[in-house]
Amino acid sequence: MTFDAYETADGSPVELLTWTNGSLVFYSSNTVKPYQNGPNLHIPLPYNRNPFSQSKDSDDTNIQMTVPNTFGVVNLYEGELTSNVTGLIIERFHLDDPALEMQTVWRGLVVSIERAEDEVQILLQPVSTGAEITPPHTFSALCNSFLYESPGCNLSRDDFRYIATVGAIDSTGLLITFPGLRVQAATIDGVQGGPTGPLSGAELDIYWQGGYIQTGAGEVRDIVEGNYLGDPDRVRVNIPFRSLEVLDGANVYAGCDLSLATCHKKFNNANQFQGYAYIPEIDPANTELPPGTRTSVTKFAGPQ
Q1: Domain residues for 221?
Q2: I need a labelling partner for 202 at 20 to 30 A (CA). Which of 11, 92, 186, 247 fits?
Q3: Strands of 48-49's sheet, edge to edge?
Q4: What DSSP assignment string belongs to 168-224?
Q5: Could you tell me if residue 278 is inside a domain?
Q6: Phi and psi at residue 38, in whole multiples of 5°?
Q7: How high is the pLDDT of residue 303?
Q8: Same domain, 209 and 114
Q9: Radius of gyration over every alpha carbon of the chain, rounded to an integer in angstroms
Q10: Which among 29, 35, 31, 34 has a CA at the least distance from the CA of 16?
Q11: Which residues of the chain fall short of a pLDDT of 70?
């Protein structure tokens, strides 16, 4: 029998799921025990999903999948939204098939995640649908790019990384100390900094603010404040990590405030800036705008 014949018969289907987000890969399956597929070990994942079809209606080809909120992919969406998109490949075969013929039956991307108590619903779209979505480009003074490795920014995040060890975590889980954070900021600035010269001491103190932390388990959190209470080795994150302890290792990535000045002097990347830094704050066609300024005192042009 062929794969298609087993699909239409009452077979015993096995699904092997491969989730990829940048360098992170998660292997899961609908099996009861771990399943070895070549070099990859697929771990059982208790999930439910709707059937997908080959319909011309794009909504019919989407997948709504329910997974436990402890699944590693979910952790990627609790903190910093990065340029890396999570992709999913579903491979399928039947235990009744002596040849164990395997076929790739679906490829797509994670579009959204919605939490409900101990379960999470993941919406996925096939690659063909996702390719039709064009991210909006906002006419803004701030940069439109995601920080690092996204079209436009093109910076390698590894050039602005500190492979750190957790020195302390407070009781809330929000304040984390990484010994050597300030020293590493100066070191990176000496190698990767812009043409205007070294950053000031105050700028190095908050070097990591606006960046993010990624653990070995794939958890990612925003750094919303650096130099917390005057300690440049201590940062505050937006959400506590699920699993992070003193002496654990983590990658800490430098932050950006999305301004042209920071892009130039901190990252030496002004040629790739994806914002509109010199747009006037007041519409010059309808306002009184003194030469050389971007703001108006009287707001409106004409007699007052």
Answers
A1: 157-272
A2: 247
A3: 35-37, 40-44, 24-29, 13-21, 87-94, 103-116, 119-126, 63-68, 48-49
A4: EE-TTS-EEE-TTHHHHHHHHHHHH--TT-SPPHHHHHTTTTT-EEEETT--EEEEE
A5: no
A6: 60, -130
A7: 43
A8: no
A9: 24
A10: 29
A11: 1, 6, 10-11, 53-60, 79-84, 128-136, 280-304
Pair (50, 120) in one structural domain? yes
Give the per-residue pLDDT at 85.
Answer: 80
Confidence (pLDDT) at 53:
66
Residue 164: inside a domain, yes or no?
yes
* 291 within a domain of the structure (yes/no): no
Cα–Cα distance measured from residue 13 to residue 112, given in angstroms and rounded to the nearest whole number: 27
DSSP 3-state of 244: coil
Looking at residue 224, its pLDDT comes to 94
Q: Which residue in 110, 37, 118 sits closest to 73, CA to CA?
A: 110
* Residue indicated by tokens 């990176």: 188
Domain at 114, CATH number:
2.40.10
Whether residue 289 is contained in a domain is answered as no
Question: Is the pTM above the cut of 0.90?
Answer: no
Q: How far is CA 251 from the centre of its chain?
A: 14
> What is the number of domains present in the chain?
2
Tokens of 7: 């699909």
